[in-house]
Amino acid sequence: MKIGKSLLTLAGLSGLAVTSLSAVGCSNVDNQYFTVTNNKNLEVTFCDTGASIYSIYYKGTCVTYQPEDKQEFTTTSKNSGKILGRTSGRIAQGKMNIDGKDYQFSTNEGKNTIHGGKKGLSSRKWKHQVKDSNQGKQIIFTYLSPDKESGYPDKVEFNITYTLFNDSDKIRIDMLATPSTNNKTPICLSGHTYWRLGGEMSKGIREHELKIPASNLANSNKVDQIIEEGDKKITATENTEFDFRNFKQIGQDIDKVAQDDKVAAGYDHGWRFDDPAHENIVELQNKETNIHLSVRTDIDMVFIYANCHPIKDSVIKHYGIDQQYGGVSIEPMVYFYRDHYDSILHTHDNPFKNYIEYELDNNIAE
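The structure corresponding to this sequence follows.
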């Protein structure tokens, strides 16, 4: 579907290039797409549904993997490019006991809740504004989630600020969620951009190289074991198909993972960082295109999903039909498991506040 473009002139935003993409042909004509560029090599298109990144271009190459059809982008269950919440990850049976009170959340993966339920933050329309800052261009999304939305307690104000830096090809996501009271409520946000750093379509991301500073696998895609056994499922990655402490092609062992775990059909797993109290960097690179991605975060775990279960007949932007292992999502996510939710319980005086930062360059490691 072709989308018409019209230039927006925004007073007071010197040097800010913004293009509005009309939503003609989408099921919801209020969906807004707009493109922002920095002073270097980035061109990023955002959408107000899910406070999402629709696409990222680096030096003219599309480095993300998303539906061509914008209607599909706003409605797909794959959460492409969107902010996940109120809780990213899985909650067993969609149930949680907080200070002696039981809560039932919307379930959307069998009996479990994943990424906030049937209508999580990824499907909500957010308000947005674009402004200049000393660091660069900022896109600020806000959403006020009412008490009991999808079963979650308390009213919560969500603020997602994307910053495109002027002096580097870097995008920072600052995530802030502030409950209205000091009653505890679960919050665990993450970003769900799919990456494919250019290159031959048929190869997908199998030849992309991944590096994760983690010696332990936090969990597997076997849902009941993940969320019910928690720390019992932490296993060492050394000399296994899950060892990415040094750069390794994603496709090197992915068929073995798929063979051993019929549910996951590939990488759909979480890694606990070796130094969870400090900033960690996950790296992805494609030697074919000489493009390197750094994902920095202050969150203690990362979930890797290698598009193991593609949607049939989904048309992916610039690459044709959606394919297994066509893109990879790198999702920093706060670690929690069943009956151990303290790490994701927040109040007005203790809001959720974390960041994810993407930086693109041509510094390929050998």
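Helices lie at 70-75, 223-229, 254-260.
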